[in-house]
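In this section we walk through a basic example: taking a raw amino acid sequence and producing a predicted 3D structure, encoded as discrete structure tokens. The instruction is simple. Fold the sequence below.
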Amino acid sequence: MAADSEDKTFWEHIDDLRKVFFRSAIVLFVLMIAIFFLKGFIFDTLLLAPLSSDFILYRGLDKLLALMGLNPLADFEIKMINVEMAAQFFTHIRVSFYVALVVAMPVVFYELWTFIRPALYENEKHAIQKSFGFAALQFYLGVVTGYLLVFPLTIRFLGTYQVSELVPNQISLNSYISMLIGLVLVMGIVFEMPILAALLSRFGIINKQWLKKYRKHAVVILVTLAAVITPSGDPITLFFVSVPLYALYEVSIAVAKPADKETDEPEEEKGEDEENSDEPQEAEIVE
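The resulting token sequence is shown next.
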């Protein structure tokens, strides 16, 4: 532990952590109020946009299908309903909080960095600081992927799926928002995989060779995770989610540190070296 951190008592560290949470909460509260008054933009332009065929992903897929000489996607539109008296108001508050949390994430990462920094040595600070910066970037990449790719495909499949024409879909606003927030935040967290791999490899917990060794196992785990993230179950959505997750695993391999040469040396080579080293000794005994 760094010298400037050893001088503080346990309760002083707790007080520093409390200040970090307090400053983060203030930023989050201010952003939440500002976002609350942007209701039209947040809901009509952003959150509810995947409910119609005009969404950017669907239009992009139509252009791709046209280039391939295939028919475009069928037009669709999902209508939301509200079944509880105060649901729309509390949904508005909940959405304002989560959008503010996403916007404030760089501030949260910075505050956590200011708390952790005094406990690090100088040679550790540079690497960890870069990791916090990339962590915020990776989080936003995950959020964008979840919003533009994973959630639209999921809602298009689940929102239009019917066991019978006699059972029309009537999706509640609360159900829609819950799935949107869950998928987007999960993707933001999952995209932290390369940062986590880089840190763990730096501290010697994992290494590049270990990640390569268990690549096949990781594929199974990642596909299972993709199936959990996308409850729609259709193969197209599963494919579009599994591919970014596997790409993240390959990025994790690229950024992870290799194992030390001494620990990575094959046992067979070591055995051969030991046999070769014993030969001169036997020769000397014979002489």
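Looking at the output, two observations stand out. The chain has 14 helices and two strands. The beta strands are 80-81, 171-172. In the next section we compare this with other chains.
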